[in-house]
Amino acid sequence: NPVLGGISPGPHTLELVVSSNNGCTSTPVYKKFLIKPAPVITATAANGCVDVPVLFTAQQQDNATTITNWNWHLDNEEKSTEQNPTATYSSPGFYNINVTATGDNGCDSNPETIRLFINKAEANAGNDTVIIQNQPFQLQASGGVSYSWTPAIGLTSQSFPNPIVLLQDDATYTLSVRTIEGCEDEDVIHIKIFRGSGIRVPTA
Fold first, then answer.
1. d(CA 5, CA 7)
2. Pairing state of beta strands 112-119 and 48-49?
């Protein structure tokens, strides 16, 4: 009872010959059989962001069959029978996505796996602080690969993560960050100018 593998689609003929312990050989027996083609597919998806729908796309690479059903396992307890489904992920990290397709002859394709990364932007403009008037102070930003500070007042650069600020008055800056995947987030920092020390005498 052999198991045959790696046989190309199409008609085939199997020949069986047996021998006894006395060296006698039987007349060959032939059996014709057909290997039906399975769909050949590819699947892709771009890395995405938390709470932003991700689009998955699948394509058939051959024309030996017509696909009648798609079967997606989206690794967030969701399944889909659409060819190009979408899914939303609430936590950052890596996800393993699998899809197979069934042809009109009942044969299933080999599974295609997508290693998906979901990111989350977390802008950090630093803690609110007090600085000396007209004295350089360096801001420290993190959380993305591109940065934008607004407004531009007192800044040496609006697009550097760590620009120098020189102020005469109090200011509030909004930091916008963006990751490679396009995830965005904002944070705010309040900067006050040190006006000098003094003695306050209560009246009561």
1. 6
2. parallel
Identify the band that residue 188 occupies on the pLDDT scale cut at 50, 70 and 90: very high
Kindly state the average pLDDT of the residues 10-27.
Answer: 93
Of 190, 189, 191, residue with least CA distance to 133 = 191
* Separation CA 197–CA 56 (nearest Å): 61
Count CB neighbours of 185 within 10 A: 17
pTM: 0.78
Q: For residues 187 and 176, what is the distance between their CA atoms, to the nearest angstrom?
A: 7
Could you report the per-residue pLDDT of 77-109, keeping only the tens digit for each? 889 999 999 999 999 999 999 999 999 999 999
DSSP E strands, the chain? 10-16, 29-35, 41-45, 48-49, 54-60, 67-73, 79-80, 86-87, 93-103, 112-119, 129-132, 137-138, 146-150, 164-165, 171-178, 184-194
β-sheet bridge partners, residue 194 = 132
> Which backbone phi and psi does 100 adopt, to 5 degrees?
-130, 165
Cα 72–Cα 75–Cα 108 angle in degrees, nearest 5: 30
CA-closest candidate to residue 120, choices 43, 36, 52: 52
Residue with tokens 């006006």: 195
Following DSSP, what letter does each residue of 111-154 receive, concatenated? Answer: PEEEEEEEE----B----EEEETT--EE---BSSSEEEEE--TT
Residue 3 has a CB neighbour count (10 Å cut-off) of 4
